Amino acid sequence: MGYWDLPEGTGCVEKTWITTKLATAIGLVGSAYHLVAFQPDSALEGLRRATNASVTMASLGAIFGMATCLTAQAREAPEDPLNYFIGGCASGIFLGAKTHSATTGTTACLGLGTLAFLTKVGKVEGWKLVGPPKL
Q1: Residue 106 dihedral angles phi and psi, to the nearest 5°
Q2: How does DSSP assign 2-26, residue by residue?
Q3: pTM, whole model, 2 decimals?
Q4: Alpha carbon of 101 to those of 67, 92, 130: distances in Å?
Q5: Of 18, 43, 45, 114, which one has the greatest count of Cβ atoms within 10 A?
Q6: Positive or negative, the Cα torsion across 8, 11, 13, 16?
Q7: CA distance 34 to 46
């Protein structure tokens, strides 16, 4: 079952698990590219960097999934794109706290919140980024 198959505001644990798995996979792929581009001095250093990036991404996914679902329940507006903005913003705030930077947190809050908001709006309105060619 996919993320969009579950009704909004229900199945919070399942939705959080899906977003955490996806974010972890993205973290692992990003770590692999980073390790190739910037060679670590030792295998242990490479493992530490890969783990740090993957755990950070997993945390962002978990925070997004849980915040979005709980916001939908608390506001009693499950289809509102603002829930996704709040989830993305919560993830961005975590990133700012991890880096000890209010600027990073604010920027990530606005960026991730806007991206999540537009993703939900696009899903509701049926936006297509890529589709079959027009003949």
Answers
A1: -65, -45
A2: -GGGSPTTS-HHHHHHHHHHHHHHH
A3: 0.90
A4: 21, 11, 36
A5: 18
A6: negative
A7: 10
